[in-house]
Amino acid sequence: xxxxxxxxxxxxxxxLPVVFYHSGIPWPSGGFIGVDVFFVISGYLITSIVAxxxxxxSFSLVSFYERRARRILPALTAVVLAxxxxxxxxxxxxxxxxxxxxxFATAFFLxxxxxxxxxxxxxxxxxFAPLLHTWxxxxxxxxxxxxxxxxMLLPWRDRRKPLWIVIGLSVFSFGAAVLMLPIQPDWAxxxxxxxxxxxxxxxxxxxxxxxxxxxxxxxxxxxxxGISAILVPVxxxxxxxxxxxxxxxPPVVGTTVLIWVGTRGGGSIVNTLLCNRVFVxxxxxxxxxxxWHWPILAFLRIILGTAHLHFATSITAVSVSIAxxxxxxxxxxxxxxxxxxxxxxxxxxxxxxxxxxxxxxxxGLFLHASDGVPARLPAxxxxxxxxxxxxxxxxxDCFGVKPSDGLCSIGAPRGEDGRRDFLFWGDSHxxxxxxxxxxxxxxxxxxxxxxxxxxxxxxLYIQRVSNGQKCTAFNESVWTxxxxxxxxxxxxxxxxxxxxxxxxxxxxxxxxxxxxxxxGPSGKQPSPVDNAALFEAGLSATVAKIVATRRKVILLxxxxxxxxxVPEFTAREALLGWTVSSPVTRKEYEARAGKTExxxxxxxxxYDDVWYIPLSDLxxxxxxxxxxxxxxxxxxxxxxxxxxxxxxxxxxxxxKSIFEVGQN
Length: 664
What we know:
Blueprint: H1 5-23, H2 34-56, H3 61-90, H4 93-107, H5 111-118, H6 134-153, H7 160-180, H8 185-190, H9 192-208, H10 216-236, H11 249-261, H12 269-274, H13 277-284, H14 286-304, H15 311-338, H16 346-369, H17 379-385, H18 395-398, E1 409-411, E2 422-426, H19 428-443, E3 447-452, E4 462-464, H20 468-483, E5 490-494, H21 497-502, E6 516-518, H22 531-547, E7 552-556, H23 566-576, E8 584-585, H24 586-605, E9 610-613, E10 624-625, H25 644-649, H26 651-662
Helix pairs in contact: 1-2, 1-13, 1-14, 2-6, 2-9, 2-11, 3-4, 3-14, 3-15, 3-16, 4-5, 4-16, 5-6, 6-9, 7-9, 9-11, 10-11, 14-15, 17-23, 19-26, 22-24
């Protein structure tokens, strides 16, 4: 296939938004779509090469895999080994174990599957996973492994048949992605089955073998439309955009159109600009830049203890990434790709590749089996880090369980009459409160039941845009059960209210923003429709509905958010010997949660049988909100969920008023 400089320029258009987006620089809010551009380019180039060789009768699967190994494995192996080496000195045992697992998955080109299964609600934030970016390489490698086999099996006497088969498979993949996105967004994002249509778009263009229009004006118009379809999403998409699904169509179609326009000599002004030396240079180093930038950013965030990087820090990290990419391209990529076959033959390539993969597999197995080798760290460090597991021991038994199943009783044992005194309903924050609620209720001889689900505040009529369906179903099941339990006089509601009200994470905490939507009666929808208004309207309606059943309601206030995992950064401070944290001030807490507290107070004041119980004073004095107790024990097991220690030692003094209310 003839070299096209404009495609290397297009790689630059793909990689730069990705790098800036990952670095936290705000302007390319949709920079993640660069990966989709890469998918189309890969589908086009690989299919063009394979289809041309099949047509000539010269295609060799072994030679194809050799070229892929030369292209991909040297730089990938270097990055993974470098990540393991750095991790050895700066990662805590649990983090090192996960890094080993991801290295193992990377060696089998299954890291996309691995991250689908491990990046759940309580997992370390994505920004702190040094090999997370290998998911897209896994998608491409899975395509490289199986797509040539498919092309070999297709009938080539009539070239239209392979084309229509690939079109059919791509349409099916796209439809599956659209359907899967609201159900299992992680699957739609990471897995090849739901991403294949993007690679298929490039493959379709290669198989169609149709030159772009002869008319210059038509080519210019198409090229301008194509580059716009890429760049506009870069600036208007953000982390709240449901993606990939239908939202990936503009960059995928735009990339396909740009490549198509360039198939005719001269192409367009846009294609000519893409041939600019600077664009081509970034395109040439794009693979190494993609490989190196993410671990550099991840380890920097780990060492600094925050997902949010200052602008100057981000620019420095990007500059270092570009320098490392050039060195990698010059001294790792090119020697293997350009080495003559006489001195580095096929056998040598496969042996070297096998050795590289076995090394990664062995390292991954060792780190997994040894639980991250805690012996490499001082005992004091591992002791502090272990508080990341200082959580509600009943979480697995109770979380996500419907109260109708009756599996999560808390407080005193039920009496002979089977009566329950209260329902404790909430999200993961309520789950973290549960041991303290259990102890306090037991002291007062009160029996209750817990109902909670991750990321699902106990509010009817509103839901999160990202995961609303599961929350709505769970909350409705709780309400249906409660309606049938006339003997329960008290309902306690607790959640991470502030995240719903503000819609943003605290201090750059990873996880993305939260947008709410109204699902209640249209006549009761608040105006203006923002998170705070939706939250107040939804919670007010929920409280009113409970009060209408002649029950009392307790609204538990928020606890201070920290923005970083307390056990992790405390342990890392001990490991590295410097302070990377500062306590949350009382003013910072009030600036963050003040609106939330006012809404909760306002709702409580509207009813005689509704009380608001603030919890912030348990953690905050006049100046600071404390992350550790007087003995240095973390009061949080991550960045915002209180630890078992805090739930048992701090909460009862604040929660006892609940049952004093309930008994009056």
